[in-house]
Amino acid sequence: MIQALTLLFLCQLAGEFLVRSLGIVFPGPVVGMGLLFLGMLAAGRAGGPLEKVADTILGHLSLLFVPASVGVVQQIGLIRENWFAIAAALVVSTLLTLVVTVLTFRAVARLTARPVL
């Protein structure tokens, strides 16, 4: 289990290193997750210990939202000043997501020759 957790942290560290050394504006942990995915593809499997660690982390996922909530509370003044822009961005992005999802579904349904509802 320690080796699997170490592997996760090493992938995150490698992602951070790549992002910072190449000057990419992208989250390092996401790059690390991609590296982990490529490693699992190369190995052909995830492995029992890695699956156990992933299940444990997912079981406590709600704890990972605490830092984000603290950040929101710390920036409440800024949010209060820009509430309209934030609300507009949320509404527009939600609508765009719905439209893109519908268009993607319809395109995939056409490609697979299934009737569209």
Give the rounded overall mean pLDDT. 88
List low-confidence stretches: none
What value does the Rg take, in angstroms? 20 Å
**Proportion of residues in extended strands:** under 5%
Q: How many structural domains? A: 2
How far apart are the first and last residues' alpha carbons, in Å?
Answer: 47 Å
The helix count comes to 6
Pfam families: LrgA (PF03788)
Keywords: Cell membrane, Membrane, Transmembrane, Transmembrane helix
InterPro entries: LrgA/CidA
Membrane topology: Multi-pass membrane protein
SSE layout and pairing:
Layout lengths: L1 H21 L5 H16 L4 H12 L6 H9 L1 H6 L1 H29 L6
Helix pairs in contact: 1-2
Membrane topology: Multi-pass membrane protein
Pfam families: LrgA
Protein name: CidA/LrgA family protein
In short:
This protein has 117 residues and is mostly helical. The protein contains six helices and no strands.
Distinctive features:
about 120 residues, about 80% helix, 2 domains, mainly alpha
Structure description:
- Keywords: Cell membrane, Membrane, Transmembrane, Transmembrane helix.
- It is found in: Cell membrane.
- This is CidA/LrgA family protein.
- This protein is an all-alpha fold and 117 residues long.
- The protein folds into two domains: 1-59; 65-117.
- Helices cover 79% and strands 0% of the residues.
- It has six helices and no strands.
- The radius of gyration is 20 Å and the shape is extended.
- The chain starts with a helix and ends in a 6-residue tail after the last helix.
- The model has no long low-confidence stretch (mean pLDDT 88).
